[in-house]
């Protein structure tokens, strides 16, 4: 059904991500988890840059696993690929008998492959069935959401997940139209959104349906709930001096990431305590100042990196130790 990976599938900010994670992956047998494997571009770069490390790649998309498996086949037993959502990390590590990991990468959002496969329904500029499931073998579809959710829930999703200020206007149109005929295709939804948004607003900010499609995708795949569970589990799994890198493409993802990492950079004792007892010091050190953005060179080489925000941290304490 899908083509082989194309040269245009350039992993986002790959050099910077390698620079952040590589110091933790220099010892023989060190373990890197690519929690969002996709087509394996980041993973391939890591396997080349960190020859002592082994890779565990997770993805909920069966087709992505197949294509990444073909791409990474030359690395043999250094690679283990698992069909899993990234909040299942504790189970995956337990199944593999791994107590701790040395690095983990989250490249969030929809993958290039999923955007480029018109039949998956992620792209608002192409007509396709309204699916949007990252694992297209299970769960509700975007059409299910549009045709069965209450007006209040639809408006909440568009406003919170899409940051769409015309959410109520769009939902009123959706409800009126679904009573005539259920939604099945992306083109119909895309045109409805375009017509619901004032003409003056449509002239700026990109495609008018972008925010609505983003909101539906996040709802269908439970992306924010999964991320809220996954980040603490990933941090807990880090070995001493292990590193985590998170690449976000949406302000809500970045906010969750910022908050999750910030918890580890603070002591867990009251602020007015004159001395921090041993074992209660911060257990994370931030490796980025705020969220790093792509350089002009990166943007020119890979336009899909435009919205990325990168945050990273290192584990500096475990089992009561500081190092």
UniProtKB/TrEMBL annotation:
Gene3D superfamilies on file: Putative methyltransferase TM0872, insert domain (1.10.150.170), Vaccinia Virus protein VP39 (3.40.50.150)
Positions with a binding annotation for S-adenosyl-L-methionine: 40-42, 59, 86, 107, 114
GO MF entry, a single one: methyltransferase activity
Reaction catalyzed: cytidine(1402) in 16S rRNA + S-adenosyl-L-methionine = N(4)-methylcytidine(1402) in 16S rRNA + S-adenosyl-L-homocysteine + H(+)
E.C. numbers: 2.1.1.199
InterPro entries tied to this protein: RsmH, SAM-dep_MeTrfase_MraW_recog, SAM-dependent_MTases_sf
Keyword RNA-binding set for record: no
UniProt keywords, alphabetically: Cytoplasm, Methyltransferase, rRNA processing, S-adenosyl-L-methionine, Transferase
Superkingdom assignment: Bacteria
GO biological process: methylation
Subcellular location: Cytoplasm
Purpose: Specifically methylates the N4 position of cytidine in position 1402 (C1402) of 16S rRNA.
Family under the similarity heading: Belongs to the methyltransferase superfamily. RsmH family.
PANTHER family listed in its UniProt record: 12S RRNA N4-METHYLCYTIDINE METHYLTRANSFERASE (PTHR11265:SF0), S-ADENOSYL-METHYLTRANSFERASE MRAW (PTHR11265)
HAMAP family given in the database record: 16SrRNA_methyltr_H (MF_01007)
Protein name: Ribosomal RNA small subunit methyltransferase H
Organism in which the protein naturally occurs: Kribbella deserti
Gene label: rsmH
């Amino acid at each position: 059904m899908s083509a082989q990976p194309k040269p245009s599938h350039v992993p986002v900010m790959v050099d910077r991500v390698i620079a952040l994670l590589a110091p933790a992956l220099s010892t023989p047998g060190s373990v890197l988890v690519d929690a969002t494997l996709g087509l394996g571009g980041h993973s391939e770069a890591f396997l080349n840059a960190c020859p002592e490390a082994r890779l565990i790649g997770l993805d909920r998309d069966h087709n992505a696993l197949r294509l990444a498996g073909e791409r990474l086949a030359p690395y043999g037993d250094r690679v283990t690929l698992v069909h899993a959502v990234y909040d299942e990390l504790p189970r995956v590590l337990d199944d593999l008998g791994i107590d701790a990991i040395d690095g983990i990468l989250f490249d969030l959002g929809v993958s290039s492959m999923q955007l480029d496969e018109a039949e998956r329904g992620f792209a608002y500029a192409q007509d396709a069935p309204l699916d949007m499931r990252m694992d297209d073998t299970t769960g509700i579809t975007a059409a299910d959401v549009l045709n069965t959710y209450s007006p209040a829930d639809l408006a909440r999703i568009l406003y919170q997940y899409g940051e769409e200020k015309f959410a109520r206007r769009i939902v009123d149109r959706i409800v009126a139209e679904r009573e005539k005929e259920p939604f099945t295709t992306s083109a119909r939804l895309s045109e409805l959104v375009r017509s619901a948004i004032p003409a003056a607003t449509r002239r700026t900010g990109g495609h008018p349906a972008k925010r609505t499609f983003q909101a539906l995708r996040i709802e269908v795949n439970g992306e924010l709930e999964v991320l809220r569970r996954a980040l603490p589990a990933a941090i807990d799994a880090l070995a001493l001096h292990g590193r985590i890198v998170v690449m976000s493409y949406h302000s809500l993802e970045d906010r969750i990431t910022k908050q999750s990492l910030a918890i580890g950079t603070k002591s867990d004792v009251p602020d007015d305590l004159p001395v921090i007892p041993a074992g209660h010091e911060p257990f994370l050190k931030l490796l980025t100042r705020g969220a790093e953005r792509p350089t002009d060179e990166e943007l020119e080489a890979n336009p899909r990196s435009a919205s990325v925000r990168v945050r990273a941290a290192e584990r500096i304490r475990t089992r009561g130790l500081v190092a």
